[in-house]
Structure formats: structure tokens, C-alpha cells
């Protein structure tokens, strides 16, 4: 080989997965072993030119793979490769390669490729037969530190020491015990060792020293009753929310049997400078000024950028963005309730759509509603109209745009009594009307946000029961779910739509992500699951025998990969100052992304076909 060509070959390898994952020394060795071939338009490769030869990589040009029966297998361009499936063939190949234009190919021979696969797991997985294995090899997501705050169990972290006292303990003895344990708080327990009071270091200073109180007095004279505690199985985020809600800096941790285990404080939760969302949530929860909330909402973009740039798992990105949305929703509705006074009856605010599934992304709009305890008179209806209109308009100003379908609590149809909600679900589950199907699809994803949680739990139970026990409804939902296919044609080519400026694109949300979401939703109904997020629904379907182990892995990997591509695409648009959308033009994707999106789309298409037999019997 002409040694002057090596830099070009090395550069191509360095930017072509999976070989881009090799070490510099491995890339050097691979580049030196590559053979270069030139082909003219209408040239062909077949049989012995393909069998047992190696992997051909297209450096420039384009080819067609033609099956033995003359049908088109696929069209390939720069960055694509072929020949891998023929490595173990002898004499007669499965297809012929025809060159559509003058082309330059690099060939990695079989021996070199086998050696690299044996030494590098990433390369081995990339060339695996199963699509999901290839997809899983494309990402090495980092467990986001933000995600840990939201999902990690308290029992899995080191707890602060805690002092224990009883009703007979003196203030002096309590202070000594706090000093011995180097604790921030002392928990007062009864004869059954249940927490009945708490004393903090601040209490000793403000209630004892500042007032010259006799330290021989019982600790019960200065303790705060109604102790707020957290269970060891709760998440760190639950601990954070509790501390913010009750304006306390340290909270005792108890076991399932209510034994005091230790304490956790805000310093432990806020010790890392990368926890932007935690700081932002803390500010949101304390802000009662609408203009300041609107200003705070602008920080969402920084958090989104940090998460995507740090290669966080897409589910981590969605969860963090969902927690931010929760904070804005709760605070804005609390401000609205304070503005318009005491509600005339009990009610519950629910969220739907991506927020209900904890799958918020940068373009998520509003989907919310109100469940009222009872029917209202005209004056009472006006109260809720004022509250919800103010809240929804404020959320819009904070970047959660008004729902185009008007699925919002400020719409009178979605601010109704519990009985009316039951009537809605009774009607929807008995209907095949497209509008009714759309309505129930929105609210099958339902999550409590504020108010009387019992109303939500009761309605969800009714909803799942009515939906799951109606086979006709399941079939209707299944047909609706399967009415859209992923944007992939017969020959592994993207099926595209033209936008208003005649530019070709596919919609990664409507034609890919939503397809997995909808499959998971119907599977959840068949096993009476009340789970709302997509991955949990798939796992429940698997646990109930509705979805096989391999199917679960396939759908999870496809969903995760497609979501990652969407977030990367949106971040690039943000950085360029362009409009963010779910519409993706294939020319904006790398060859690597194109190849693996095709794998993901094929998984979805295969899973849709399997689901059609389960849901609608065909």
C-alpha cells in the first residue's frame, strides 16, 4: 500500500463506528492492513468476491445489493459496509453488489476482523446478529448524578449520626448526647422507641441559651412534637422535597418497623455543584413571584444541555425534566389558590401525557385536568375557572406551552366532578369513535400532582378496571396503536414526508417514540397495570407474561436509542439557534445514526406485528 494513503484511511476509521472505539495502536494496525479497491459504474461483486473475503466499507460512491431472485436488498452509501453476512459462506453468495457510480472501497479481511472482534467487545457487539445487541453497543450512558438524587434509595447512602433521648432526659443530657454523636438533631422517643419529638442544635441555642433556661429541665419542654420522618426505602428526592416543604434542614430516617436509623440533611443532597436541577427546584418551591418564576424557567435549557452533553441516560434526562415540571406546576397552582382564596370543595390536579409518564422533554406542552369532589354551582365553577386559567397561562409563560388539543384544566370539559370523570371513562371504553379514543389515550396516562390524592387513586382504579375488562376496547386501542408504522421501507430506506419548504424528513416522535409508548400503554391495560411510564409498563407486561424477555430488551433498547437521537438532535438545534422540533432530515444524521435508527425501526415494526396478534387477532 502507498504509505501516503495511511492518514486518510486512519481518519476514516477514526470517524467510522465501531472502529472509532479502538485504541490508537489498534487503529494504526487496522489502517495498515486495509486493502483499497476502485470500481466503476455497473461493476459487480458476487460469489467468490464476497464469500469469506471480509468487510467492505464504502469510502466514496454508492452500491445496490441485489438478491439472487433479482429483487433489491438495499442501497448503500458512504460509511455503509457490506460483506459481513458472507464471511462464513463458501463459493456462492446470497446477493450481488452492483455499483451505481464510481466507488472507492476499503476491505478489512476476515482474519483481521475476527481478531479485532475477539479483542474488542464494542466491535463484537456492533456486528452482532440481533438488532438490540447492536443498539446496546452504541451507548455507554453515564448514570446521571441528578438521576441518582431522584431515584437512589436513602438506605443506600451514608446517614448522619443521630442522638436519641426519652421523656425523662434533661436538656443538659440531650446536649451532651448531641455532642458525643456529633449530630445535628436529637430524636425523643416513647417507651416503644417511636419518635414523638425532636430537638435541634438551633433549639439548644435559641430556646435554652438565649432564654437562660435551666438545663436540668426535661427535654420535652423544648422539643418540637409531630416529628417529620422519612422511610429508608424512600428516595433522596423524597427527603429533599420533605425538607423543603417543612422548611427543615435535617430529617430522621426510620426503618419499616419505625426504628430510628439516622438522619439526612440538605448538605448531603446539595454537595455537588452539578446538581443544577436541585438548586433550581429549591428556588422554585420558595418563589411566590410570577415574574421570578418565569425568569427561573429559562434555566431549564441549561440543565437540558448539561444532561445531554454529559451523555446521561435518556431516561435520566426525562426524569429530571419531569421533576422540574412538577415543581413549576405545584408552585404555580399554589400561587393561584392563594390568589383566589380557599377552594369551595376538595379537588385534585392531575397531569397527563409525557408529564404523567415522567417522560418530559424540551418540547413537552401542557396536559392537565381537575377532578372535583362534587358538582359545583355557577359561582364555584367560576372560582376554578379563574384558578386554572391563571395557572395554565402562567405555565405557558414558563415554557410549558398551551396544549393545541386544549387538554387543560382551564377547559370546562376537563374540570369536572369525580362522577363526571367516571362517566367519561364509561363512555370512552364503550366507544369506537376516533375522538373518544383520542380522549382516553390522553388520560390513560394520568398522575396525581396536587390536592386530594384519593380522588386520583379511585379514578385510576375505575379507569383500569373498565378498560382492561373490555376486550373490544383493547382491540380498538390495539388497532389505533398499530395504525402508524415506523418510517422504514422495504429496502431499509427511510420513508420521508415533505415539510412546507419541500424538505424531506421523518417525525421521530410520531413515527417512532410514540409507537413504543402506545405499545407499552396497551400492554399495561392487558395486565391491569396502573404504571404510567413506558419502561415500567413494559416490565410489568413482561412480569405478567404478555411480553417475552427478549421482546422487553428489544423494545427498551430501541426506545432508549431513539430518545437519545432525539435529544441530541434538539440540542444541536438549540446550539445553532434553530427552531427545536421532532422533525429530522436524514442528511443531518451521521451514517452511524442512520444505521442504528434503522435497527430500532425494524425492532418496532417486528414488535407491532407480534402485538397485532395479541390485541386484534391478526
What does this structure look like?
This protein has 618 residues and is of the alpha+beta class. The protein is 48% helix and 15% strand. The chain is built from 24 helices and 21 strands. Strands 1-8-3-6 form a 4-stranded antiparallel β-sheet. Strands 2-7-4-5 form a 4-stranded antiparallel β-sheet, with no helix packed on it. α17 packs parallel to α19 and α21 packs across α22. The protein is globular.
Record field, number of beta strands? 21
Amino- and carboxy-terminal Cα gap = 57 Å
Task: List the total number of helices.
Answer: 24
Evaluate the radius of gyration: 30 Å
Kindly report the spatial arrangement of strands forming the biggest sheet.
Answer: 1-8-3-6
**What is the overall shape?**
globular
Tell me the structural class: alpha+beta
**Taking all residues together, what is the mean pLDDT?**
87
Which segments are poorly predicted (pLDDT under 50) over 5 or more consecutive residues? none
Biggest β-sheet strands, sense, barrel: 4 strands, antiparallel
> β content, as a range?
15-25%
Report helical residue fraction.
40-55%
Please tag this protein with its features.
618 residues, 4-stranded antiparallel sheet, 24 helices, alpha+beta
SSE topology:
Layout: H1 6-14, H2 24-33, E1 35-39, E2 44-45, E3 54-60, E4 63-67, E5 72-76, E6 81-82, E7 95-99, E8 103-109, H3 110-119, H4 121-126, H5 131-136, H6 145-151, E9 163-166, H7 171-181, E10 185-189, E11 195-200, H8 201-209, E12 230-231, H9 236-246, E13 250-254, E14 260-265, H10 266-269, H11 276-286, H12 290-297, H13 300-309, H14 314-340, E15 347-352, H15 353-356, E16 368-372, H16 378-397, E17 415-417, H17 418-429, H18 434-444, E18 446-451, H19 453-468, H20 471-481, E19 497-498, E20 504-507, H21 509-526, H22 534-543, H23 549-576, E21 583-584, H24 591-615
Parallel strand pairs: 9-10, 12-13, 16-17
Antiparallel strand pairs: 1-8, 2-7, 3-6, 3-8, 4-5, 4-7, 10-11, 13-14, 15-16, 15-18, 19-20, 20-21
Helix pairs in contact: 1-2, 11-14, 13-14, 13-23, 14-16, 17-18, 17-19, 20-21, 21-22, 21-23, 21-24, 22-23, 23-24
Amino acid at each position: 500500500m502507498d504509505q501516503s494513503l495511511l492518514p486518510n484511511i486512519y481518519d476514516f476509521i477514526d470517524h467510522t463506528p465501531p472502529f472509532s472505539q479502538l485504541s490508537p495502536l489498534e487503529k494504526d494496525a487496522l489502517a495498515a492492513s486495509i486493502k483499497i479497491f476502485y470500481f466503476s459504474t455497473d461493476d459487480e461483486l458476487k460469489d467468490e468476491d464476497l464469500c469469506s473475503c471480509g468487510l467492505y466499507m464504502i469510502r466514496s460512491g454508492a452500491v445496490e445489493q441485489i438478491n439472487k431472485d433479482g429483487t433489491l436488498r438495499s442501497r448503500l452509501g458512504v460509511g455503509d459496509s457490506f460483506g459481513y453476512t458472507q464471511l462464513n459462506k463458501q463459493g456462492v453468495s446470497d446477493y450481488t453488489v452492483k455499483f451505481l457510480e464510481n466507488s472507492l472501497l476499503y476491505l478489512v479481511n476476515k482474519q483481521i476482523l475476527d481478531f479485532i472482534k475477539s479483542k474488542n467487545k464494542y466491535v463484537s457487539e456492533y456486528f452482532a446478529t440481533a438488532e438490540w445487541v447492536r443498539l446496546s453497543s452504541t451507548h455507554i450512558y453515564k448514570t446521571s448524578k441528578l438521576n441518582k438524587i431522584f431515584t437512589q434509595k436513602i438506605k443506600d447512602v451514608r446517614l448522619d449520626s443521630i442522638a436519641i433521648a426519652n421523656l425523662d432526659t434533661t436538656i443538659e443530657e440531650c446536649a451532651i448526647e448531641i455532642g458525643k454523636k456529633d449530630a445535628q438533631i436529637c430524636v425523643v422517643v416513647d417507651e416503644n422507641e417511636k419518635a414523638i419529638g425532636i430537638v435541634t442544635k438551633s433549639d439548644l441555642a435559641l430556646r435554652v441559651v438565649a432564654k437562660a433556661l435551666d438545663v436540668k429541665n426535661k427535654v420535652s419542654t423544648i422539643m418540637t412534637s409531630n416529628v417529620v420522618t422519612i422511610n429508608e426505602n424512600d428516595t433522596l428526592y423524597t427527603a429533599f422535597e420533605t425538607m423543603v416543604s417543612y422548611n427543615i434542614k435535617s430529617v430522621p430516617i426510620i426503618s419499616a418497623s419505625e426504628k430510628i436509623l439516622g438522619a439526612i440533611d440538605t448538605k448531603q443532597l446539595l454537595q455537588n455543584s452539578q446538581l443544577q436541577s436541585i438548586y433550581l427546584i429549591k428556588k422554585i418551591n420558595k418563589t411566590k413571584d410570577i415574574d421570578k418564576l418565569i425568569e427561573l424557567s429559562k434555566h431549564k435549557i441549561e440543565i437540558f444541555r448539561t444532561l445531554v452533553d454529559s451523555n446521561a441516560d435518556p431516561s435520566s434526562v426525562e426524569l429530571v425534566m419531569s421533576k422540574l415540571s412538577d415543581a413549576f406546576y405545584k408552585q404555580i397552582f399554589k400561587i393561584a389558590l392563594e390568589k383566589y382564596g380557599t377552594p369551595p370543595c376538595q379537588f385534585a390536579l392531575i397531569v397527563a401525557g409525557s408529564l404523567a409518564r415522567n417522560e418530559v422533554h424540551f418540547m413537552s406542552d401542557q396536559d392537565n385536568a381537575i377532578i372535583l369532589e362534587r358538582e359545583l354551582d355557577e359561582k364555584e365553577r367560576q372560582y376554578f375557572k379563574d384558578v386554572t386559567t391563571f395557572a395554565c397561562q402562567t405555565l405557558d409563560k414558563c415554557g410549558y406551552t398551551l396544549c393545541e388539543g386544549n387538554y387543560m384544566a382551564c377547559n370546562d370539559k376537563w374540570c369536572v366532578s369525580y362522577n363526571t370523570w367516571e362517566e367519561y371513562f364509561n363512555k370512552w371504553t364503550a366507544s369506537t369513535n376516533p375522538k373518544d379514543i383520542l380522549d382516553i389515550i390522553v388520560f390513560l396516562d394520568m398522575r396525581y400532582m396536587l390536592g386530594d390524592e384519593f380522588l386520583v387513586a379511585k379514578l385510576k382504579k375505575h379507569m383500569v378496571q373498565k378498560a382492561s375488562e373490555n376486550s373490544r376496547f383493547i382491540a380498538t386501542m390495539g388497532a389505533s396503536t398499530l395504525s402508524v408504522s415506523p418510517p422504514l421501507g422495504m429496502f431499509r430506506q427511510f420513508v420521508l414526508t415533505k415539510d412546507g419548504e419541500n424538505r424531506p424528513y421523518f417525525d421521530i416522535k410520531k413515527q417512532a417514540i410514540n409507537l413504543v409508548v402506545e405499545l407499552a400503554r396497551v400492554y399495561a391495560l392487558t395486565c391491569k397495570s396502573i404504571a404510567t411510564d413506558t419502561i415500567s409498563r413494559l416490565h410489568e407486561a413482561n412480569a405478567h407474561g404478555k411480553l417475552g424477555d427478549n421482546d422487553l430488551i428489544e423494545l427498551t433498547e430501541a426506545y432508549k436509542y431513539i430518545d437519545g437521537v432525539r435529544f441530541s438532535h434538539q440540542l444541536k438545534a438549540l446550539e445553532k439557534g434553530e427552531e427545536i422540533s421532532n422533525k429530522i432530515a436524514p442528511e443531518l444524521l451521521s451514517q452511524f445514526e442512520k444505521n442504528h435508527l434503522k435497527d430500532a425501526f425494524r425492532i418496532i415494526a417486528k414488535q407491532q406485528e407480534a402485538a397485532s396478534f395479541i390485541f386484534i387477532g391478526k
